[in-house]
## 1
Amino acid sequence: MTALSPFFAFVGGVATLSVQTVIKFLRSRLDFFALIYQIEAIGNKTFVLVALVSIFTGMVMALQLSVGLGRFGLKLYIGQVIGLTIVRELGPVLSSLMMAARVGAGITAELGSMVVTEQVLAIEAMGASPITKLVLPRVLACVISAPLLAVMGDIVGILGGMTITMTEAGITGRFYLDQILKTVVLEDFLVGVVKTFFFGFFIAIIACYQGLNTTGGTEGVGKATTQAVVYSSLTIFITDFFLTKLFLLL
Amino acid sequence: MKPIIEFKNVFLAFGDNPVLKGLDLQIQEGETITIIGGSGSGKSVTLKLLLGVLSPDSGSIYYQGKNVTTMGEKDLIAMRKELGVLFQGSALFDSLTVQENVAYPLREHFDYSEKELDRIVAQKLAVVGLPKIEEMFPSDLSGGMKKRVGLARAIATDPKVILYDEPTTGLDPTNTQRINRLILQMQKTLKVTSIVVTHDMESAFQVSNRLALLKEGKICFVGTVDEAKSSKDETVRDFIEGRMETVEPLKIMEAR
C-alpha cells in the first residue's frame, strides 16, 4: 500500500488540478495574450520536431511496406495502409509524444523554477491565482495546438511516405494520393484528431502539476521534468488504447 | 488598541516535524516588528500563514479582526491586496520587464490606463532609488537592485502592511544599509505596518520598534530593541550574541 501511495497521490493531485482548472476556465477572465503567447511558443517548439518525426515515419513505413506487401504483390495498396495508419494512429500519437517531450518538459521546468524561486508564491501573495495565470493558458494552448500539430503530422507523414513509395515501389504520386483519398474517410481523420484534444490536456495538466509540486531546489526541477515526460508519455499510450476502443464502440 | 494582526495559539507541523507549537503574537498598526529566530524556526512559515497560502493545524490568525484561516477566496484576495511582500530572493518574474513586474499587482487589482500604470511604476521605482530602469529585465539587475525592485512591487498598491522575508540576506554591507534605510523610510513616509523576518541582528536593531524571538515554535520574547539589548533572559542574550543553536530539520525545509 505504501508503495502505491505516491501513485494515488499523483492521480489525486492531477485530478484535483484538472477540476480547479476547469472551474477557473468557467469563472475567470481568460488572459487572451498569454494564451496566444503560449500557442506560439508551443508551435515554435514542436513544429519542426513533429514534421521531422512524421516525415521519417512515413518514409520508413513506405520502405517496410514496399518489401512486406511486395511479397504478396500488393504494392499498390501501400498508400492505403500508410494513410490509414498515420491518420488514425501514428500522426496523433507521435505528434503528441513529441509535444510531451518538448512542451511538457518545458512547462514543468519553467513552473518548477518559478516555484523554487518563489515566483509562484509571489503570484499568490499578490492576490492572483497561479492556476488562472500559469496553468489555464498552458492547458488551453496545448489542447488547441495538439490537434493542429497532429493534422500537420498526418500531412507530412503521408507526403514522406509518398516520396519513398514513388522511388521504391514505382507507384506514381497521383495514384498513391488517390488511394488514400478513397480509403481514408472523415471518421478515420476525426478519430485521430479528437484523441489529440485529450492528449494535449493530459500533457499540459501533468506538466503543470509536476512543475507546481517541485521540491528540492534545482535538482528537484530536473527530477520533476523527467517525471512529467515519463508520466505524460505513459498517459498518452494508456488513454490512446481506451479512446480507440471507445471510438470503435460508438 | 486593537492589533491589526494577531496570531492566536497557532500550531503547524509538516509531517512529523512540528514547526509552530502555540505561537501567540499581536502586531499593532503602524509599528515595525521584527521576528528573529534561527534557521528553520518557522519565521517564513509565519508570514505564509498570514498570507493564507498555508493553513495552520490549529489556532487562528486575524487580520483587522477577520480570521484568515476561515476566509473565502474573495476575502483572501481582498486581504492580499492590502499586503505587500518583499521575498528573500526578490521573486521577480524572469520573463517580465521591471515595469511589468512592478505593474503586476496593479493590473491584478485595478483598471488603470497604461499611462497611469507607467506613472505609478516610475514613482515607485523613484522611491526605491532606481529611476528609469523600467525596460530592463531582472537578469540585468544586481542582487541589491532586484531587492529594491521587489520592494517597489511590494509597495505598488500602497499596502497597509509590508512583509519583509529576510530582506538583507545575501546582500553586501552597502546594499544592506540601503535596504534598512528603505524599510525605515516606508515606515516614516507611508506609515505602514511592517513585519520583518530576519536573523540579521544589526538590521533588526536598526529598523524595528519591537523584536519577537521565535524559538521552538513559540514566541519566547517580545519587546523593544532597548529591552532586548538589556534583557537578562538567557535565550535572548544567546540569540543576540550569536550563541543560539539553530535547528534546520531537512523535512521542514523540504515541506516549504
Note: The helical segments of chain A are 5-27, 32-68, 78-116, 119-125, 130-168, 173-183, 186-212, 217-249.
## 2
Amino acid sequence: MGLLAPLMLGLGAAVMAGIVTLYILRLRREERTVSSTFLWQQLVRDVEANAPWQRLRNNWLMWLQLLAALLLAPALARPFFKTAGVSGKNLILIIDRSASMGAVDADPTRLERAKSEAIRLIDQLPDGARATVMAIGGELDVPAAATNDRRELRNAINGIQLRLGGGSDMSQALSLAGALAARETDSEVAILSDGQVTVPTSTTIPAKIRFFPLGESANNQAIAAVTLNELAPGALTFFARVRNNGAERVVRRLVVELDGTLFNAYDIELPPGQDQTINVDVPASTQIAHVYLDGTDALPSDDQAWAVRPSNDPIPVRLVTPGNRFLATVLGLMPRVAVTAYLTETAAFTDTPMLTVLDASLPDPLPEGNLLIIAPYRSTAYFSVTGVLDQPVPRPSLTEEPLLRGIELGEVNILRSVHVENAPWAHTVIDSSSGPLLIAGEVDGRRIAILGFDLHDSDLPLNIAFPVLMANLVGYLAPGSGGESAFIAPNQALNISVTSDVEQVRVTLPNGATVELEPRQGSATLDAAQVSQAGIYTVELHGAGGVVNTQRYVVNAYSESEATINPVPVLDIAQAGGGVVGSTETEQAQAGKDEWWRPLALVALIVLLIEWVLAQRGGMTRLRLWWRARRTA
Amino acid sequence: MSDVGGLFEPAFLKQLDRLVLLTRRSTVGQMQGERRSPRRGSSIEYADFKPYTAGDDFRQIDWNLYARLEKFFLKLFVAEEEITLHLLIDSSASMDWGEPNKLRYAAQLAGAMGYIALGGLDRARVQAFGGNATRLPAQRGRAGVVPLFRFLSQLQGQGPTNLVDACQRYVQTTRVAGPLLLCTDLLTPDWEEALRTLSRRPFEITLMHILAPDELNPPLEGDLKLLDVEGGDGVDVSADLDLLQRYVERLYAWRQEVETFCNARGINYIFVETTLPLDTLLVSVLRERQLLR
C-alpha cells in the first residue's frame, strides 16, 4: 500500500489540532439564567471540572468531527494498493472485438472479460486522467476519444459488440495510439486481446504498452466451408470442410440438416491442425443446408454454418472495352454470368445490367449500376487521376481482405498504373509503396471498384491470381453471381441489384427481424452494421403485384484467422525508449494503482451527517413535535 | 370585601367565603374562638370530671355527683379557642421565576388560606423568608384581611434561599403552634434540614411544593452555562435530549424523595405546578387533602 499525496496526512493532523483548539476556545458557553442550578448540579457534576481536556471528554460533536477528519486526511492522501493495471495519465485502451473474442473460455466470453477489465482500468485512473477507447476487429472504432468523463468511457466500453467479420488488424489502432501518445507525456496503451491479432512490425509507440492477455483455451473446431453445388442439372452435391484449430485430436459429430430436416450425422476424427471433408449427394430439391458440430468447444460461433442452393438465373454483365481478350475470356467462363460486350465508343446503353466493366473507357455520364473500372484515363466525380505509378510492387492492404481471398500477389508484375486519389468512399484492396492499385467501395448506393493498371501493362492475366481476382470482384460487384455468390462476409454491406419494377426490398435477418429497404438507382443496400449475424438473409423483392423475386444470402462466422484462438501471452510491439517487447501478464503486474479513498470519504461523509444530525437534533425534536401536533390537530 | 393589592377578584373571594379551614388536631389558642382547645374552658360541651383540690374554682363542683358519691368533683367543659395559621412564604429570587410566576402564585395561595382563616375568627400570621425577610404579625378577624393582602401583594423575590435559618428562627420565635403552610420551591440543598427543623414544633405542616413549567421541562438547547438567579457558580451543560431526559427523571426522583420524607414526618406534601388554577387547587386539591372544607 502507498500514498499518492502523503503531505495530506500532515494537513489532516493540522485540521484535527485546529478542531480541538477551536473547541477549547469555544468553551465560553452562552450564559443562561435559571431559577436554580440545584438539580443541574446533581446531573452534570462531571462536566464541571475545570480542566479543558476533561471538558472535551464528553463532547460527542467534537469527537465525531475528529473522526471525520481522521478519515478524510487519509482519503486526501489517496491511499492505493498496487494491482495489475495502468498508471498513466493518458490511457489508450485498445479492445479486441474480433470473432475470436467470442470464445467462452473466459466467463462469460473473452470480450466481456476484456470490457470488465477495461472498466476496472478506467476506475483506476488517477483523477484528471483522460482515456481513449478503441475497438479493433473490422473497421477501427473510437467510441470515446480523450475524455475524462468516466461515465462516457464506461458507456463506450459497454457498447462494444463482437464483430464476426473484418479480422483483427491492429495497424490502424496502433498508428492512432502512437499519434495520441506522442501528443501527451505519461501516456499508456492498454491492449485487451487474446493476442490473435495482426501487429505491424514497423510501428513504434512512444508510450508504455500494457498487454492484458485474455483466454485460456485453444480448443476450437470450425466448419470452414459448406456449399451446395449443382454440378449437373438435377445433381446436387453437399460439401463441408471441418477444421480442428486446437492442439489435441478430437472426434466431433457433424450434423447435416437439409431444409430444416435432419439428413445425416458424421463422426469426424480431427487431428490437430487438420481438415476433414464431407462430400455427399443430396436431394436435388434441397434449398438450404444447415450443418453444425455437436458438442462444445471454446468458440461456438463457428460450429455451425449454412449454405443455400445457388440461383440459376443468369446475371447480366456489360463489358465496355476497346478489345480485351483476357477480360472477355474470364468473364465468359464464369458460371451464370451473361456478358454483353460493347465497344468503347458506345455512349448510350439500352440494357440495365447489374455490373458494367469499363476497360480503358469512361463514358460520360457513367453508366448506372455497379462499376468495375480498369485503367481509368481521366478523373470523374468519384475519383481523381493524378499521375502514373511506375513499376509499383503490389501488396495486399489488409491480411483478411475478402476480395483477395485465394490470391497470391507475389508473382504479379506491373509496368505502370495510374494514381487514383480523392476516393474517400473506397478502401484500398491492393496497395503499393507509391499508391493504391485497386480500390473498392460504395458510393451513391452502388459499388465501384477501380483497378489502376491496364491488364496489358501487367502479367496479371497470365497469373492464376487473375481469374480468382476477377471472380472475387464480380462476386462483390454482382452479388448472386458465381459459385459462392450467395456467401457474404460478416459485417459487409449487402448490395442488392433490383430492376425498375421493384418498389420495395424486404430483408429477413437470421433472427427473424425484417428490414425494409428503398431501392435507389437500381440497387438497395443492407448496411454492414445489419449484416452482423451468422445465418440466412432472405431478400424479397416486392413489385406492384407482390413478390417479384426471392434471394437468399448466407453469412457464416468462420474466419481462418479468427478460428485459431489459442491465447498469445506476448505481443511483439516496439515501445519507445528501448524497444521493449510487448509486456506479459507477469511483467505488467503491480503496475496499476487501485485507489481506495472513496470508501474512506464515504464513511467520513456518513460521520459528518451523524454529527450534523446530533448538532441539530434539538431542532429535529421540535420539528417532530410540530409534525406530531399537526397530525393530531 | 374589595380586592387589595390585585391579588384576587371579588368573585373569587366569595368562593372563599364558603370554605373553612380544617385542622387535624386541636391546638391551644390565645383567645377564645370557635375551635376546640385541648384546654378546659367554659363552653357548654362536657369534657371530663376532676377531683376537687384546694384552690380549684368551687363554682365548677358538680353537686349532683356530690349527692351520689359524697365527694367533690369538678365538672370540666371543653374550651373553644382560636387557632393561628402560619403562612411561610419563600420569597427568595428563585421563587420570582416562571410563567405563571411562582412567588405570585404562592402569595395568592397564602392570601386565600389566610382569608379563609381570618373569616373563621382564627389568626393568620405570615413570614416571608428570602433576601429580605419580612413578616406580618398575627392578624385576627376580617379586619386582618386588608393588611394580609397588602403584605402579600408587596412581596418581592430577592436574595438567596436560606430555608434552614428561616425555619429555625420561626420555630424559636413562635409561641403558639398551629397549621403551617410552607410555600416554597424547595430548590435548596438543605431542604431536609429545614423540614426537620419545622417538625420539632407541633405544627400541622403542609408543604406546598411550587414549581413553574419551565422548571419541569426546561426549554434549553445547546452548550450553555447555567447561572443560578440566586448567585453562585454556573453549571456548564450541553443541553441535548439525553441530558433533558435525565433532568426530568432526576426531578421526578427528587419529588418522590421529598414526598417520602414528608410522609415519614406527618407533613402534608402537595406538589403544585403554577399552571394549575388557584380555585382548582383550593376547591379540589386542598379539600380532597382535607385542609379545607
Note: Residues 46-51, 579-589 of chain A have pLDDT under 50 and may be disordered.
